[in-house]
Amino acid sequence: LRDWNVSFAGCGFMAVYYVGVSCCLMERARGLLDNAAKISGASSGAITGAVIACRIPFGREASKRNLSTLHPSFNLMRFVRDFLHRELPEDAHLLASGKLCVSLTRLTDGENVIASQFDSKEELIQVRGTILNRYVDGALSDNLPYCKLKNTITVSPFAGESDICPKEGPYFYQEVRYFNVSINVNRNNLCRVSRIFLPPRPELCQSGYRDALQFLLENGNFGRRETIFL
Question: In the chain, what are the domains?
Answer without folding.
Answer: 5-218 (3.40.1090)
